[in-house]
Amino acid sequence: MIFRSLLFVPGDSERKLVKGALSGADALVLDLEDAVDIARLPLARQMVHDYLLNRDQGTQEVWVRVNPLDSGLALDDLAAVVRGRPDGILLPKGSGAQDIQLLDHYLGALEVRDGIAPGSVAIMPVATETPAALFSLGNYKNCSTRLKALTWGAEDLAAAIGASTNRLANGEYEFTYQLARSLCLLGARAAGLPAIDTIWGNFKDTTGLQNDATLARKAGFSGKIAIHPDQVPIINQAFTPDEAELQHARQIVQAFENAQGAGTVQLNGEMLDRPHLKQAQQILAMQHRS
Ligand code: COA
Ligand code: MG
Predict the structure, then answer these.
(1) Domain, as residue range, for 251
(2) What's the predicted TM-score (pTM) here?
């Protein structure tokens, strides 16, 4: 499944684990990193493990965000949760393809330990959280068959750079973070993978989220991360084409079918060539996600 929505759920919150399952998110990301106080990490590992083992095997994927590979915590996180058979691991603060390969090896060993089919646990990095990571975004192609998508984040990058804010006075991301967003998108697409947009932090601002998610889809992102259940339906809708868009896409495909062998056609006075056909086919493919 290509995700529209991934909901972050703090791994040590029983109430939120229950709510997350009911949220309608395509995937949950149970967090062991920034949303969990370090003193509660052992408890959170146990709760995430138990959640994974007891979950309904429905269509909602369940991923786990572990601590960074150089934190000294990641191996214990992985050892605790892989036996629960998560669908994937979200890797924060990675610095590129070599981190994916290292995590791939760790997962391979743990899958053998736990009798899980080799390669079944997927990986998605938060691919822009360190300055060095931005220089590696073109290197993800073929680094691991586990790699499912790339996503990006602006908060840890700002902290790593020593910035006091990542926003301009008008609220938009400052250039460095727009660059991170674009490079994530390009890096993912260059690797043949979907790109997932970062969070919209103000979960009460539903209009802002709607605009942000709509722009992200138009830019080429396949989905977006949510931090609150109220954001999930807005994101799912923004990443599902509406009837007018589907209708237009069908007309484009039809116009090419009617003009067998022609590389370029017209629709209502507009010139259409192969990129338009490809875009229309991509929109039609999106309607089946849910
Ligand atoms: N997943 C599942 N349930 C959630 C949730 C989430 N991410 N965020 C809120 N809820 C639940 C709450 O528990 C509450 O249900 P309850 O009354 O049964 O307890 C309900 O939704 C309404 O929540 P609300 O009161 O509006 O917010 P809150 O103050 O409980 O939580 C946050 C606000 C920001 C702390 C919370 O949304 C959160 O923890 N988000 C995820 C943070 C995270 O994982 N960050 C790391 C990645 S950036
Ligand atoms: Mg973080």
Answers:
(1) 243-289
(2) 0.95
Query: How many CA atoms lie less than 13 Å away from 213 in the CB half-sphere?
Result: 28
Angle formed at CA 130 by CA 109 and CA 138, multiple of 5 degrees: 75
Total count of domains within the chain: 2
Assess whether the C-beta atom of 36 lies below 6 angstroms from ligand 1. Answer: no
Domain boundary among 238, 259, 276: 238
Handedness of CA 139, 103, 111, 58 (dihedral sign): negative
Q: Is 135 found in the same domain as 272?
A: no
Q: Is the domain of 18 the same as that of 145? A: yes
Among protein residues, the one with the nearest Cα to ligand 1's atom 30 is: 16
d(Cα 21, Cα 61) in Å, to the nearest integer? 10
125 and 183: one domain?
Answer: yes
Tell me the pLDDT tens digit for each residue of 67-104: 999 999 999 999 999 999 999 999 999 999 999 999 99
pLDDT in tens, 103-154: 999 999 999 999 999 999 999 999 999 999 999 999 999 999 999 999 999 9
Q: Domain check: are 21 and 79 in the same one?
A: yes
How far, in Å, from the CA of 287 to the mean position of ligand 2? 32
Distance in Å, CA 155 to ligand 2 centroid: 6
Q: Is 20 in the pocket of ligand 1 (CB under 6 A)?
A: yes
What's the 220 CA to ligand 1 centre distance in angstroms?
28
| Short-list 100, 101, 152, CA closest to 129 | 152
Measured CA to CA, the distance from residue 136 to residue 120 in angstroms comes to 25
